[in-house]
Amino acid sequence: MFSQLKSRFGSGLAVGIIGMIAIWLIGLVILPQLLMVDYSLRPNLLPADIGGPEDVYSLTNYETLFSNKIHLAIFFKTIWSSVLVTSLTLVVSYPIAFYLAKVATPQKAALCLLLLIIPFWINEILRTFSWYIILAYKGPLNALLLGVGIIDRPIRFLSGDGGVLIGMVYAYILFMIFPIYNAIESLDTNQIKAARNLGAGWIRTHWRVVIPHAKPGIATGCIMTFMLAAGSYAVPALLGSPGSRWFTQIIYNWFFEGGDWNQGAAYAFLLLVICIGFIALVMRVFKVGLGDIAK
Amino acid sequence: MDSSVHLDNTVMQFGDFTAIQKTDLKIESGEFFSFLGPSGCGKTTILNMISGFIDPTQGDIKIGGQSMRGVPANKRPTSMIFQNLALFPLMTVAENIEFGLEVRGVSKSERKKASDRLLELVALEGSGTKKVSELSGGQKQRIAIARALAVEPQVLLLDEPLSALDLKLRQHMRTELKAIQRKTGITFIYITHDQGEALTMSDRVAVMSAGRIQQVADPITLYRDPHTAFVASFVGENNAVAGKVIEVNSEFVVLDCGPLGKLAGRCQGNVAVGTDATLFVRPEHFRLQAENGMHTLQATIDEVNFEGAYLTLNANTPANQALSIQLGTHQFSDALQKNAPVSLSYNEKDAIVIAGGGHV
User: Fold this and answer.
1) Across chain A, which distance is largest between two alpha carbons, in Å?
2) pLDDT at res. B360
3) In CATH, which superfamily holds the domain spanning B237-355?
4) What percent of chain A has pLDDT over 90?
């Protein structure tokens, strides 16, 4: 890499570029992470005891999670709910992405994209709060459903996981739509016509031609949505009920309420490891390589 | 089985733009029929209407006598070979060929039999397990043909499928397509802007311009007796000379072509004395020696091009009428040189006069 950069920009600039990348990667990404790993392996001590005889490396912080039934349940619920959020987002996003990429005229597609993006100019907390209002017990959605006569008494959307799921699908929809849109856009429209021409109905055309082509985009969207959902804090904090806590809230509590950074770091790492493992598994199952996603 | 295609007073409009003017045309069962025209003339629109990707604004498409109105693309007895072939890159060759059968619920073993048989037809036995990307351009072409034939269509639609191939391969594929058409007896509808393809393969050709069919005829008639000035200049090379009609008899029309004198040719359609008309003479109909019944033009040679079997001359008359002439190589002599004078004669039976000026 250095020789390529050197031949293009000269050695001075090449050193500069590489240096900046190195500072960014090492100083801002790798070192803080290593610091957190280090934290997670030490006990939580008073400042005076740090470096003392009790300050030894151990896996105690990691073991805490497995001995705490409630935390463990929330941990798996977070993973499972994130899978659910990802699937729901995919189901909602795929038709939109297909419409934008292959059906809509350029003007309509541009308008739709604008309409999709505009809400994201508003702060995430505020957007989530608007859902809080919409989904409230005496909120507009219940009023509408009551008015139309679909229900005869208001639904408590915010008491279970429902509110969190809706809020997250909404919050991450763009991260799903754009990669899929890009992938479908690069599909030659004649491929769709050819499938139709050979007698395939719409479902089969999508299943055999469009989806296999869009697979890298779908995988990218799913990975982003899954990671964001599993690591989300604002949506569960605002739309969740006490019974639907997210694992990130527990990590937050360790850091800022329990004051136990060491314990919090261990929890955060467990979440990270499981998420990465889960993604690797999904990529394996769907036969998607890292190279496909980078495309 | 009747696999004729009938464009029954079909009109296709996109907003204010009329892509296909009212057209009534019957393509016979088992015919190799071509639509020939420059890009944007509406020929692809016709193919899209027949295959069901778009529905005509007015009129109907009938296949085998059955109206296709409201029949979606995946339920029509047609199959198409796309300009870019549109093979499915993520499937193997065999999966590509079998796709249409898979859709129809044909069993795996039957599908395998069919794809083996088709691979043999296109002379690519044993390529079934290959990826599409491993094939050469010509092989891809054949797989596209095999895939389209696998569904046993009544009508095969071909959208300039040879345009991506090099010249040699293209000529070879022409022969092969024609042979496959004869073997299968399927109605072939071929779209092209390449007159060579249209003339060599087709039973009949429809020449199109600006959404209108100008003439439908077999290739020889089309070349010899073009009905319109567009056909005369689009199909093959032609020299167009404008003039005023001064005499019309049962066979010939005489034009006053100003400084070029009086020239005559066969009459095509209605030509009235006193109106503008255009005389068309093909480059290969010029002779260097005048014989009886011939008309002669005096010109100066601008350029001599040796093309192997023949020579082409670009010449200019004193009245600034550009002419192109094609001569057999045996007629070459040292006298044919840039800036040399030349007298060019043609037989009036070989020339055609079509009403209307301004085609030059």
Assistant:
1) 77
2) 47
3) Nucleic acid-binding proteins (2.40.50.140)
4) 45
- Give the end-to-end CA distance of chain B in Å, rounded to a whole number: 47
pLDDT value of residue A295: 58
Q: Which residues contact B211 (CB under 8 A, 6 or more apart)?
A: B12, B18, B19, B20, B21, B41, B42, B45
Chain A / chain B CB contacts < 8 angstroms:
58
B154 and chain A in contact, CB less than 8 A: no
Read off the pTM.
Answer: 0.81
Largest CA distance in chain B: 76
pLDDT of B188 reads 95
Q: Give the CATH fold of the A68-292 domain.
A: MetI-like fold (1.10.3720)
Per-domain residue ranges of chain B:
5-224, 237-355
Q: Suggest the residue from A186, A190, A197, A204 to mutate for an interface test with chain B (most B CBs closer than 10 A).
A: A197
B80, B90, B91 member nearest A197 (Cβ): B80
Whether A294 has a pLDDT exceeding 70, the answer reads no
Q: Give chain A's end-to-end CA distance (angstroms, integer).
A: 20
Q: Which residue of A has its CA nearest to B157?
A: A197
Q: Of A188, A200, A204, which has the smallest distance from its Cβ to B86's Cβ?
A: A188
More confident residue, A156 or B283: B283
Pairing between β-strand B252-256 and β-strand B239-248 as defined by DSSP bridges: antiparallel
Residue B110 φ then ψ, to 5°: -65, -40
Residue of B nearest to A198 (CA): B100
Per the prediction, chain A carries an average pLDDT of 89
Q: How far apart are alpha carbons B303 and B340 in whole angstroms?
A: 10
Res A175: pLDDT: 92
Nearest C-alpha of chain A: how many angstroms from B94? Answer: 14
Residues A58-102 have pLDDT tens digits of: 888 888 888 888 889 999 999 999 999 999 999 999 999 999 999
Q: What is the DSSP string of chain A?
A: -HHHHHHHH-HHHHHHHHHHHHIIIIIIIIHHHHHHHHHHTS----GGGTTSTT----SHHHHHHHH-HHHHHHHHHHHHHHHHHHHHHHHHHHHHHHIIIIIS-HHHHHHHHHHHHGGGGS-HHHHHHHHHHHHSTTSHHHHHHHHHTS-SS---TTTSSHHHHHHHHHHHHHHHHHHHHHHHHTS-HHHHHHHHHTT--HHHHIIIIIHHHHHHHHHHHHHHHHHHHHT--HHHHHH--GGG--HHHHHHIIIIIS--HHHHHHHHHHHHHHHHHHHHHHHHHTT--HHHHH-
Q: In this structure, which amino acid lies at residue B147?
A: R
Q: Does domain B5-224 have CATH number 3.40.50.300?
A: yes
* Binned average pLDDT, 10 residues per bin, chain B of 360 residues: 87 91 92 92 92 92 91 92 92 94 92 92 87 90 92 92 83 88 91 90 94 93 91 90 88 86 86 89 88 83 88 87 88 83 89 76
In this predicted structure, what is the pLDDT of residue B359? 52
* CB-CB under 8 Å, B84 with A199: no
Most A CBs within 10 A among B74, B76, B132, hence the mutation to make, goes to: B74
Q: What tokens were used for B206? A: 């429809």
Retrieve residue A121's tokens. Answer: 């100019």
Beta-ladder partners of B279: B241, B353
Put simply, the answer to whether A195 touches B88 (Cβ < 8 Å) is yes
Residues of B in contact with A188 (CB under 8 A): 84, 86
What was the pLDDT predicted at B199?
92
